[in-house]
Amino acid sequence: MTLAVGTRLGPYEIVALIGAGGMGEVYRARDTRLDRTVAIKVLPAQLSSSPELRDRLEREARTISQLSHPHICALYDIGREKDTDFFVMEYLEGDTLAERLVKGALPIEQVCRYGAEIAEALGTAHAAGVVHRDLKPGNVMLTKSGVKLMDFGLAKAFAAPAPIEALTSSPTRARDLTTEGTLLGTVPYMAPEQLEGRQTDARTDIFAFGAVLYEMAVGRKAFTGASQASLMSAILTSEPPAVSSLQPMSPPAFDRLVKVCLAKDPAERWQSAHDIGLQLAWIARGGTDQPPAPARDLSFAPRWLVGLAAAGVLAAAALMVLYALRRPSRPPAAPIRFAVRAPVGTRFTWIPQHNLFAVSPDGRRLVFVARSADGRDFLWVRSLAEPSAVTLPGTDGAAAPFW
Predict the structure, then answer these.
(1) What is the pLDDT of residues 146-162, one digit of tens each?
(2) How far is Cα 370 from Cα 348, in angstroms, rounded to an integer?
(3) 199: Cβ–Cβ under 8 A, 6 or more apart, which residues?
(4) What is the distance in angstroms between the CA of the first residue and the CA of the last residue of the chain?
């Protein structure tokens, strides 16, 4: 039952209902002792009816409350008012990642930045022995100070000691593909070991993290199905299309990072969220910087060794010069010619002193401007190995493309 405005739960006064889900209703409330705004999560009545489950909730809450990280939503308190159990959490302003994804994919630089912040939060919790078990866009809040990971570890606290009957009892149901309040979490982001009822650990979160990164980059879920049975089968047996096949501008390193996250076998995934964060930061910098090789200090080497090394260098240089002088000259490369047609429903336009086409530095892709039937110019990218091009969202009004 929804709580009325003004209801008191201990020292907390309900201000407004801000959300509801399988794990309970969430309210904005005022802490009358400290005069601050907090979020109150009121747990479902069925969870409050079991003394054993309430004890487990309190134990998990004590562990979670010890997590202190700028990208983890803080858990302040746990309480009980008559027959109502509730959590008191940090109040956050912003949109969830799920709400943002309704608008479509995020730019790759935002994906890397938000992803690195999620990885930091996961790494901190995993180091403390806490696994999320229900990582999904709805549990990631986008705030002015960065992402905040919510409901951390609560999936385990809410877990009922039952097998996966909740998922298998109605395998052909097409809607409601999330099963919250159980050991399993939310189906589209669940790792194979969760679906099979096997032991879960930090690598289970890494699989879910890969699914979230994929959805951020392409704007759609990594695994889909018309029913729970087909969705579970997709997670267990199939691979999602590569990110670059849907977003041609995404770097190959990001493709590989997500693919390793989504490995079916936990042993073949990234083993640490911290390492994923480092990879994302490297990709965000362009993926080109490499640490220089350590310099060898020869100041204490024997003189004969230094002389031998110098002689070796001179000999190698002489051989290279001799090879360059005597090798046959290569014939000039044959020119490559190909035709590019405007995509269906568009036409090419020419603007003086503006490039219409640009070939990528590696010679594998072509970007060009084409005008749609309603007179708007967009960027299109085509792999030279493919016959068709794809448009780049958000490039309305583009001109003079370059790499």
Answers:
(1) 999 988 755 555 554 44
(2) 5
(3) 193
(4) 57
* pTM of the predicted protein model: 0.66
Q: Is 312 left (phi over 0), alpha (psi -120 to 50) or beta?
A: alpha
Q: Which pLDDT score is estimated for 295? A: 43
CA-based nearest residue to 179, from 21, 356, 317, 355: 21
Q: Mind listing the pLDDT tens digit for each residue in 289-312?
A: 554 444 444 444 556 555 666 677
Handedness of CA 149, 153, 158, 162 (dihedral sign): positive
Q: What six digits make up the tokens of 111?
A: 């994906």
Average pLDDT in the chain: 81
- The amino acid sitting at 387 is P
Q: Radius of gyration (Cα) for the chain, nearest Å?
A: 28
Determine the pLDDT at residue 97: 97
Q: Identify the active-site residue in 31, 134, 151, 205.
A: 134
What are the structure tokens assigned to 124, written together?
């901190």
Residues 6+ apart with CB under 8 A from 212: 97, 115, 118, 135, 136, 137, 140, 189
Cβ neighbours, 10 Å, residue 333: 6
CB-based contacts of 229, cutoff 8 Å, min separation 6: 171, 172
Asked if 88 contacts 65 with a C-beta cutoff of 8 angstroms, the reply is no
Task: Using the structure block, give the residue that is written with the tokens 């980059």.
Answer: 217
* Helix/strand/coil (H/E/C) assignment for every residue in the chain: CCCCCCCEECCEEEEEEEEEECCEEEEEEEECCCCEEEEEEECCHHHHCCHHHHHHHHHHHHHHHCCCCCCECCEEEEEEECCEEEEEEECCCCEEHHHHHCCCCCCHHHHHHHHHHHHHHHHHHHHCCCCCCCCCHHHEEEECCEEEECCCCHHHHHCCCCCCHHHHCCCCCCCCCECCCCCCCEHHHCCHHHHCCCCCCHHHHHHHHHHHHHHHHHCCCCCCCCCHHHHHHHHHHCCCCCHHHHCCCCCHHHHHHHHHHCCCCHHHCCCCHHHHHHHHHHHHCCCCCCCCCCCCCCCCCCHHHHHHHHHHHHHHHHHHHHHHHHCCCCCCCCCCCCCCCCCCCEECCCCCCCCCEEECCCCCEEEEEEEECCCCEEEEEEECCCCCCEECCCCCCCCCCCC
134 as an active site residue: the answer is: yes
Two tokens, residue 3: 């709580």
